[in-house]
C-alpha cells in the first residue's frame, strides 16, 4: 500500500515535469493488472482513439518476450518508432516499482527520438493483483481487471483495485457467458475506491474505449494546463 501516500498530490505537479532542455515532458500513464485482463487491448484502443489529437508513445513490459509490443506493431496502432519493449526478466512488478531505470530510460529515449510527446502509455507485464507503479515512473495509473477473472475481484481489492487513479472493469460483454454480476462488480469497486473513478468497458463494441479515452484527455489537459 506504499503507493497510497501521495494520493492527494495535485494531479499536474511533478518535480521533474521538465526535460533537461527545459521543454515539458509527456504525461506518463501506467496500465497494470492481471495477465489477460485487456491491458494491451486497451493501449491499442487508446492509441486509435487519441493518436490524431496527441503525440503518443508506448512502452510495454514483458517477462521474457516482446509479445505486447509485437501485437501493437502488427496492429499498427502507432508508427513503429513510437513503440518500445522492455524485457523485465522474472519479476515484472520490479521493473515498474522498485528498479524503474529500464522503463525510465525507454521513456526518455522515446522523448529524444520521436518527441515532443503529449502522452506515454506504460504497460506493465501483468503478474498479479498487487503490482502497482512507482510514482517516479508514471504520473497516473490505470488498473485493468476483467469480468472473466471473477466478480469477487473488486470486493477482494488489493492496492491496484483500491488506489489506481482509474479502475477499468473490462470485457463486460463476457459477463453473461461467465456468470459475472456486473452490478455487483460496479458496487464493490465503488465501495473499495470511494471517490476514485471506475469504468465498465467492453472493447468488443464500437468505440469501446471512449470513456477511458475521455479520462486520459482530462489527464493530458491537467498536465499541460
Ligand atoms: N470479449 C472481450 N475480449 C477482450 C476485451 N478486451 C480484451 N480482450 C481479449 O482478451 C485477451 C487478452 O487481452 P490483452 O490485451 O492481451 O491482455 P493483457 O495481458 O492484459 O495485455 C485478448 O484475446 C483480447 O482480444 C473485451 O473487452 N472483450
Ligand atoms: Mg499485455
UniProtKB/TrEMBL annotation:
Keywords: Chaperone, Cytoplasm, GTP-binding, Nickel insertion, Nucleotide-binding. One of its GO terms (biological process) is urea catabolic process. The keyword Cytoplasm applies. InterPro entries: CobW/HypB/UreG_nucleotide-bd, P-loop_NTPase, UreG. GO terms for cellular component: cytoplasm. GO terms for molecular function: GTP binding; GTPase activity; nickel cation binding. Pfam families: cobW (PF02492). Its main location: cytoplasm. GTP binds at residues 33-40. It is found in: Cytoplasm. Residues 1-24 have a biased composition (Basic and acidic residues). NCBIfam families: ureG. Belongs to the SIMIBI class G3E GTPase family. UreG subfamily. This is Urease accessory protein UreG. It comes from Streptomyces parvulus. The gene is ureG.
